Amino acid sequence: MRRILVIKLSSLGDVAHALPAVRALKERTGAEIDWVIQPEYAPLLAHCPDVARAIAFPRRNFARGVLPFLRELRRERYDAIVDLQGLLKSALAARLARGTLRVGPAAAREGAHRFYDARPVEPAGPRRHAVDEAMAVVDLVAPGPAGAPKPRLDFPSAENDGSPGPHVALAPFSRWPTKNWPVAKFAELGRRLAAEMGCQIRILGGPGDVAAGDDLARRIGERARSLCGKPDLPGLCSILKEMDLLVAVDSGPLHWADALGVPLVAVYGATDPARTGPYRQRDHVVAKPGLECRPCHARTCARGDLACLETLDVETVFQAALKRL
Which end of the chain is less enclosed by CB atoms within 10 A, N or C? Predict the structure, then answer.
């Protein structure tokens, strides 16, 4: 094959889950790979050597951006078009691109499957991990050995601020309340890591987390500093590379840290680590055992008490962090 188009538009963590599939396509075919992605995530692909060209999908300004997008999308003819998103908008992009073969995921939704020439068989029983789901799509284009290869990434190292280690990052924020371990518990964890292990604590989050990140840093103390909203996404990955440990909820930083090989502890509530956990470090997920309601995959807690996170104690997460350090 000469050229392949990959479509994975969002989100930050889902883009990280697609990286092994892109590496596998490159290893198995040697083709040039273009990637359709939302503009806010496109800068990350500049640090993925397997991607020749990022094509920005104009989600927010579609009416104004659709014609330039279509020109870029149809500039090349592709031997295979690999939709890893499985939604109507991504399937339409696959249909509008010029190509010979169009494939998509088994769990495609919104009628997306009508635009594909092939998709994998849905497994019996529990769904595959998101990385394995993407690899099953790759196998339709270029069959290969079982297992997902490690992504190839070349983010530069962040400047060291000179503070003595260990350096531990906390990523406490996601868009789902049912993923977020209470900030008070993160504060207690940070204080213990600083006091008992001498850790420097860095708090990571987006522009909308600045006030919460600053507050968490104050609650931890002088060894903590919030970086919320400061680095761009490539800068975030450069910071992650320098960390001795990341403690995070199910969020974008968690999955990029896993792709980069950064040691981590993942705190899970409503979501299922078997489906969207850190792919290479699944043994380092901490979740409250014995609750029949989890994983519920819901943005709001049907019980009303968020027991999966409120009753997960700091000592359990602290001991998991000590093992990684």
Answer: C
